[in-house]
Design goal:
The structure is a homodimer. By secondary structure, chain A is of the alpha/beta class. Chain A is 19% helix and 43% strand. The first copy, chain A, folds into two domains: 1-56, Roll (2,3-Dihydroxybiphenyl 1,2-Dioxygenase, domain 1); 66-118, 2,3-Dihydroxybiphenyl 1,2-Dioxygenase, domain 1. In chain A, the strands form two sheets. A four-stranded mixed beta sheet of chain A has the order 1-4-3-2. In chain A, strands 5-8-7-6 form a four-stranded mixed beta sheet, with helices on one face. In chain A, strand 3 and strand 4 (49-54) form a beta hairpin. The longest helix of chain A is centred in the N-terminal third of the chain and has 12 residues, at 15-26. Chain A binds chain B through residues 1-11, 25-27, 43, 45-48, 50-51, 58-73, 77, 80-81, 109, 112-114, 116, and chain B through 1-11, 25-27, 43, 45-48, 50-51, 58-73, 77, 80-81, 109, 112-114, 116. Strand 5 of chain A pairs antiparallel with strand 1 (3-12) of chain B, so a sheet runs across the interface.
């Protein structure tokens, strides 16, 4: 058996804009544009790529799958993401002290950012 | 800046069953069960985890984000996945010869499997 996760693809009305936005946020790179219908972003840290594909009408409502990211400095990253156009949705802290923030990207896709363990 | 993709989380009505199903398909491992409300699966090949979180009503319709996997032997993997309970949705071949198959997991989440380049 050999089945490997290679990519996470997001339906988008504007893949080029959204792909460039994500590339900037994660320090990644747009590696393929394909005339804007399928935009691939490589990540600096992991051998998985993000892709953004053009669709007329992305499924509305909360995205059923989401990305979870970790930040070395959560508050600084959240402030930076908000300045870059993300919206903060919720700030969670569990009893254990584990804290993460839910944000929405410019097309409204929710994602979570957690404080990396030091 | 330090913002790293660590996990992909899927809303699910039955995280334990779906998490175990995915772990088996990718040769991964259930590393946390959290009483079935948040199930984490580690992947053998990449430092990204899959998670399955319990929600009452996952957003209906086609999942706006999906996983893209690659297989060393596409036809064999598709046959295996179908025997394991996945449904084949579509078999695509581009003019370039690039071929991938869209399947749905047991909760109806679409994912793609492509032939790995040899």
């Amino acid at each position: 058996m050999s089945l490997t996760v290679a990519m996470i693809t997001v339906d988008s009305t504007d893949p080029l804009t959204l792909g460039r936005w994500w590339a900037e946020q994660v320090g990644g790179k747009v590696v393929e544009e394909n005339d804007g219908w399928f935009v691939i972003v490589s990540l600096p840290d992991v051998p998985v790529q993000l892709a953004f594909q053009k669709v007329g009408r992305p499924t509305p409502g909360k995205n059923k799958m989401h990305l979870d990211l970790v930040a070395a400095d959560l508050d600084a990253e959240v402030a930076r993401l908000e300045a870059a156009g993300a919206d903060q949705v919720e700030d969670h802290t569990m009893e254990s002290g584990f804290r993460w923030v839910t944000l929405a990207d410019p097309e409204g896709n929710y994602f979570d950012v957690a404080q990396a363990e030091s």
